[in-house]
Design brief:
With 188 residues, this protein is mainly beta. It is 5% helix and 40% strand. The protein is globular. Bound molecules: dTDP-4-keto-6-deoxyglucose. DTDP-4-keto-6-deoxyglucose (T46) binds next to strand 6, strand 7 and strand 12. It comes from Parvibium lacunae.
C-alpha cells in the first residue's frame, strides 16, 4: 500500500480499499479570506485518476440523517469519482465490488467535513449519510452519468453490515428499493 502523498495544496492518505484515498485540501488563509485548490490533474494522476473530468455534480442535503446511495455504474461507464465536502459533515462509505480485489465486498467509512474528500476508484459503490443539516458535496466524475448503467446496493444489505451513524431522515424511494446482493455475487 503506497504511503501518504503530500503536495503544497493537498495531502492524500490511502484507504484500506486499494486505489481509494482520503484527501485533505490545504486552505491558504490571508486577511482577505482564503483559497483552496479543489483539483489538479497532476496530483490526482499521481493517485491513479485516469482521463478528464467529464462531469461535476453538486449535492445539497437539507437535513442531518439524509442517506444517498449506494450507487455505482457498470462497465463501460464504471468511473473514478472524487467526492469532496464543501459544507457540513458526512459519513461517507465506499464498498469494494471488484471481484479480484483482496478487499472484495469490504467497505470503508470515513467522516468528511469541509476541505476533505475521498477518491473512489472504478468498481466501487458510494453512499453517504449526512451528520449535520445543510451538508454539501461536489462530485467529479471521469465518466458521464448513464442511468441505464447505474446500479445500487441496499444501505442495510446484510452482506455489507454498514453501521450508519444516525436514524435515516431522508432517503429516495429508489434507494429504499435496491435489491440485496445475491449470496453468490461474484463482483464486477
Ligand atoms: C447522479 C445524477 C443524477 N441525475 C438526476 C437523476 C435524478 O432525476 C436526479 C437525482 O438523482 P439521484 O437520486 O440518483 O441522486 P443521488 O441519490 O444524489 O445520487 C448520487 O449520490 C450517490 C451517493 C453517488 O455516489 C452518485 O454520484 C450519485 O448517484 O438527478 C442527473 O441528471 N445526473 C447525474 O449525474
Amino acid at each position: 500500500m503506497p504511503n501518504r502523498i503530500d503536495s503544497p495544496q493537498f495531502n492524500a492518505e490511502p484507504l484500506p480499499l486499494t486505489g481509494a484515498w482520503k484527501i485533505q485540501r490545504k486552505r491558504r488563509h490571508d486577511e482577505r479570506g482564503s483559497l483552496t485548490r479543489l483539483y489538479s490533474d497532476s496530483f490526482f494522476a499521481s493517485l491513479g485518476w485516469v482521463g478528464s473530468i467529464v462531469q461535476i455534480n453538486h449535492s445539497v442535503n437539507t437535513q442531518a440523517g439524509t442517506l444517498r446511495g449506494l450507487h455505482f455504474q457498470l462497465a463501460p461507464y464504471s468511473e473514478f469519482k472524487y467526492v469532496l465536502c464543501l459544507r457540513g459533515n458526512v459519513f461517507d462509505v465506499v464498498v469494494d465490488l471488484r471481484s479480484k480485489s483482496p478487499t472484495f465486498l469490504q467497505h470503508c467509512a470515513i467522516d468528511l467535513e469541509d476541505d476533505q474528500g475521498v477518491l473512489i476508484p472504478p468498481g466501487c459503490a458510494h453512499g453517504f449519510q449526512t451528520r449535520v443539516d445543510g451538508s454539501e458535496l461536489i462530485y467529479l466524475h471521469n465518466q458521464p452519468y448513464q442511468p441505464d448503467a447505474e446500479r445500487g446496493l441496499h444501505y442495510a444489505d446484510p452482506q455489507l453490515q454498514i453501521a450508519w451513524p444516525l436514524p435515516i431522515s431522508q432517503i429516495s424511494e429508489r434507494d429504499q428499493q435496491h435489491p440485496p446482493l445475491a449470496s453468490d455475487f461474484k463482483g464486477l
